[in-house]
Amino acid sequence: MTKIAWDETGKRLYETGVKNVVLYKPGENGNYSKGVGWNGCTAVNESPSGAEATPFYANGIKYLNLMSNEDFGGTIEAYTYPDEFAECDGSTVLADGVTIDQQSRKVFGLAYRTEIGNDLVGTEYGYKIHLVYGALASPSEKSHSTVNESPEAVTFSWTFTTTPVNVTGAKPTSHLVVDSTKVDPTKLAALEAKLYGSETEEPSMPLPDEVKALIGATA
């Protein structure tokens, strides 16, 4: 028998930061291609909703709980955004250097990385790659104020909701997470080459079934 132990050396894990943010536009075949780096992204806040219990009663007692479907959404915060995101934010080019707002918003995919740290090596312990599918951004407030003795850069913020994509053998999902501490390094490198691009292929975001095939099915 094994006795439970708490706070063992090397197992005091934590998660922090966001980096390597990539925007993907969906292609005609449903895949996410044409990935571009998102500079200046300061936060991706995940805000799942739903999964609420509705109780049912019989004979004066609680008979069962039925859970509603879960929805994945959140907010993106950044100092700037890639030109390719303009369509996702309801803008379109009217002429060279001229854009107009209040246009149809385009769906997008998003990839970002968070760091995993522990008590021995800090944030060099590992990381998680998050893939978000079927995201749709909502209009957001943009505040512009005069420059003064304490200047601040304008921070943009977008709330987004998602539409799940199909997953073989599981319910549809909008959010997939790859943990570098639990994935074979060679397979992880192959996934990153697809996500971030290489000398032989353009950056693209694989769907969950493709990730499963690339990383390997659960034993």
From TrEMBL:
It comes from the Bacteria. This is Phage tail protein. It comes from Ileibacterium valens.
